[in-house]
Amino acid sequence: MQQNIPNNKIFSAMAIFKAPIWLNMREIYAQNTNSAQKK
Questions:
Q1: Cα separation, 27 vs 31, whole angstroms
Q2: Distance between CA 16 and CA 10 in Å, rounded?
């Protein structure tokens, strides 16, 4: 699965920028599941 270097650079940049969003989504998801289990 070899990709072009420009595509890798773009993907790396997107991954770096999206990392905080994914962490926040996981945190929110965990809170939602915890609150649902407590009910």
A1: 6
A2: 10
Round to the nearest angstrom and report the end-to-end CA distance of the chain: 46
Q: Helix, strand, coil: what percent of the chain each, to 5?
A: 85, 0, 15
Query: What residue type is 1 in one-letter code?
Result: M
Segments making up each domain of the chain, as ranges? 7-38
User: For the whole prediction, is pTM greater than 0.70?
Assistant: no
Q: How far is 31 from 26, CA to CA, in rounded Å?
A: 9
Provide the token pair at 23: 């962490």
pLDDT tens figures, 12-22? 877 777 777 77
